[in-house]
């Protein structure tokens, strides 16, 4: 029954998410990954070392992280395989590494807060983006929320699902460990440029296929989203994705922009420094809370397509076994 793990994990996590009480009690796997990453960084990322030494230290830290995650998850999967309904427990564990429900909730909270006031919108969006919220106007807050929704549809849902399908519980856990490492140390500032190099490059590699698959899923979801354009979604993704510094992040963002007729991207500020980033799409730029809700509808339809695809793959595998 292992083929059912991926579609059931998608369905269960989308409905229930990760209970906040559980986070308060024992934490979350991503928090545990982050704790190990931080522990290793404090001990290995020494400013007195040369750039080459710091690159090597970062590579060693990444290998240690992945080995720890691999040993634990392979051990758990092996033990669960001995139990009559162990695959159900493995499915429940896999749900902790998906982010459908929380991502949708956090983005919806921005729309609701922005309707109340600009200050409330800035506060809400500050919890899901790294850019400075203080200088954002209403369109800037809405744009930030939609861009985060698009990028994390890939990083938080499609990519972990794909690694779960391909490699089971160890696969999804290893993906999230890589993605967490990149978010913590894969930066271009003086502290992390060399130390986080390996994490950033590996994250680029593991997200190459999921980012493009996300753009395809968004395009397909347009057929079921009023006002969305599948032809424009795919055309914009192909035309604009390459403008992004990341080889992957531009694909889901450009697909969302084209699908909804929005203009996303553009300059933004990080720690007081304005970064001139490319724009995706040529449509509406003066976005508002209602546009966030439209993006959320496209996001939900994308999840529907992903669940249907996952269920179809599971059915094919089950029938193949017979």
From TrEMBL:
The gene is cbiB. Belongs to the CobD/CbiB family. This is Cobalamin biosynthesis protein CobD. PANTHER family: COBALAMIN BIOSYNTHESIS PROTEIN CBIB. Converts cobyric acid to cobinamide by the addition of aminopropanol on the F carboxylic group. Pathway: Cofactor biosynthesis; adenosylcobalamin biosynthesis. It is a multi-pass membrane protein. NCBIfam families: cobal_cbiB.
